[in-house]
Amino acid sequence: MTPARHHTEWLSLVETSGPFLSLPVLLRIFPQGLDLRDPARAAALLESYEDWLDRGKPLLHVHTAWIRHVLENLLEWPADYIAEGQSIPAGLEATQPHFGETLRPDLVLRRPLSGTTSGVDADTTPQLLIVTYPPGQDLEKPVAGKVWKASPATRMTELLHASGVSLGLVTNGEHWMLVYSPRGETSGFASWYADLWMQEPITLRAFHSLLHLRRFFGVAAPDTLAALFTASSKDQQEVTDQLGRQVRRAVEMLVQAFDQIDEDSGRTVLTGVPEKEIYDAALTVMMRLVFLFSAEERGLLLLGDPLYDQHYAVSTLRELLRERADQHGEEVLERRHDAWSRLLATFRTVHGGVQHESMRLPAYGVALRSRPLPLPRRPGKGQPLARNPVPPAPGEQPRRSPPLGSPPDPPRQSPRRRPRGSPPRFLPRPRHRTDRPRL
């Protein structure tokens, strides 16, 4: 298995929300993969976990012992690196005056208070704040018995913002949530579950690799966990900017195609259609495609099912169009509209779902039902705009065909092309920089 495939596998098993470590950063720090699993430590962890399952909920000292086992035995944090009680540095708190609450960490990971051989005090800056909760407290639901109805995850983000520390760890013993929340930036959350450590050992390896003591104190500054998140944020911002540029360019190409069809028809196809509606429709189509490509890549749809792949998947449609272009030339694609009809069917299928013996897909309801302006077919002279038929989803009644005797499309004539570089009349001029689109 390649390192990229290795990292992609464990990333798929860890619940993340918001910014997290990017693949390029992981490949730079772990070029050979995550730290190897230590069988002895894994066995001790399993024994402690089973004892916690049996006695941890009613007995506080067993719950505390399990958490300390993870920190001190699995992650190898020495006891003098873990501050608690009166040894927690001052200023690590967040006050919520409206609710009469003050948030404080239960534990703090920092270098111990000791001098160096040069006589200069060691850097004791807090690296990670830890807050623990009882086993029955859901980390994503309001804390029981508190006036402020905020979840442990939200409370940790407020504590990190107030204290100036970017990393926090919240746990109820079963759920271990890593929080990255620097001031002025979007918060990121990553969740591990103790029972999954036993079932999917690669998740335990990831937890160990990222939160081991050396990731805070045993590596160069650019390789610490906080620095990895910062570098990943820059990578993800570049990807976002590039995607924005690509989407804008695709919108321009689609609008130009609408305009060319309208021009070839003597400006009769889009008569009465506002320019803003045309531009909004093109943008809607592109954002839907971005959604579908992302969902299929993440395994959220039915990619891999033969029926879905052949008739609905946008990933296989792209490959099919490339294959046809290689075989017959791109000019052939300019005269075919079946791909557009397939896209409309996919939009409707993902929104409304499918319950058919051949294919089942839940209704995701992601605003894909309302249809943007379909790619028009060339109408006959004096005829209104003709829209492409949409193939029905499985189990759905097919739409009626046009009445017999409807005028056929006229033969294609050599159109007068717009001069290269001349913008279509529908494309609005942006009021912002085109290299940083606001989509």
Please describe what this structure looks like:
With 439 residues, the chain is an alpha+beta fold. It is built from 14 helices and 13 strands. The strands form 4 sheets. It has a 7-stranded mixed beta sheet with strand order 1-9-8-7-6-5-2, sandwiched between helices. Strands 3-4 form a two-stranded antiparallel ribbon. A hairpin with a 4-residue loop joins strand 3 and strand 4. The longest helix is centred in the middle third of the chain and has 40 residues. The radius of gyration is 29 Å and the shape is elongated.
Taken in chain order, the helices and strands follow as: HEHHHEEEEEHEEEHHHHHHHHHEEEE
Average pLDDT value? 81
Strand content: 5-15%
Percent helix range? 40-55%
The profile of the biggest β sheet is: 7 strands, mixed
Which key phrases capture this entry?
11% strand; alpha+beta; 13 strands; disordered C terminus; 14 helices; 439 residues
SSE arrangement:
Blueprint lengths: L2 H11 L1 E3 L5 H7 L9 H17 L4 H15 L7 E3 L9 E3 L4 E3 L3 E3 L18 E5 L19 H12 L3 E5 L3 E6 L7 E6 H6 L1 H11 L2 H4 L7 H40 L10 H23 L8 H6 L2 H15 L1 H4 L4 H15 L1 E3 L2 E3 L14 E2 L8 E2 L52
Helix pairs in contact: 2-9, 3-4, 9-10
Quick overview:
The chain has 439 residues and is α+β, with helices and mostly antiparallel strands.
